[in-house]
Amino acid sequence: MANAVDSRASARIARTTELLNVVERDHQAQISSYKRFTLIIIVALALVLVLLAVAVFYLRKQLTKVSALKERLQDAGHTKDVYISQFMTLCSTYMDRLRDFSKLVNRKISAGHADELLALTKSGKFIDEQSRSFYEIFDDAFLHIYPDFVSQVNALLKPEEDIAPDSSGSLTPALRILAFMRLGIDDAGRIARALNLSVNTVYAYRNRMRNRAIDRDNFEASVMAIRGL
């Protein structure tokens, strides 16, 4: 009888142990599954964070580009307005001078002073006066658009070769020739006609400036790359 009881007790213990082992294995399986799930979630979140960081970086880069483009467009619009304003001023001034000269011609001819008119034109005084007037208007207009032009040109020259505007603040002939080149007019003939100089004089000034430059070969290209407003 005692043996039977012990046998049944042992059987129950064995079944209980087996059940506990099954429960333990199931519990361990659940823990492993939970760990795998947690790891997957962590990896997924890490990937999302990486993608988010990349997206933020890309968006910031694009916003920077858009901001820079907007600024350039605003600068271009402002520069265009300045160009138009200065061009209109130049045209208006020369229209006024043309009217004044026309009145002068009419008065001289009406008064029978054609000889005085001929003397005025032959002396070159009228051309000189108009040239000086043009230089003043051109220099003022150009320096409004390129206020740092002189300093930027000097940055391209050897330290001992710096040049400066004359005492009145006007550009020197050499600087004026470079200013025309910056505006895209690099033909010596056109520059000579506009500035009332000989073509040889224009070539001489250009060659002299190249010789004063730090980089002689690329000096004029660098001048034409100077930025304005």
Could you give a quick summary of the protein structure above?
With 229 residues, this protein is mainly α. It has eight helices and no strands.
Topology:
Elements: H1 2-110, H2 114-123, H3 125-145, H4 149-155, H5 173-182, H6 188-195, H7 199-212, H8 219-224
Helix pairs in contact: 1-3, 5-7, 6-7
Structure description:
Helix 6 packs across helix 7. The chain is an all-alpha fold and 229 residues long. The N and C termini lie far apart (113 Å). The mean pLDDT is 77. The longest helix has 109 residues. It has a domain of 106 residues.
Keywords summarizing the entry:
mainly alpha; rod-shaped; 229 residues
Give the amount of beta strand, in percent: under 5%
Task: Give the SSE string.
Answer: HHHHHHHH
Number of helices: 8
Mean pLDDT: 77
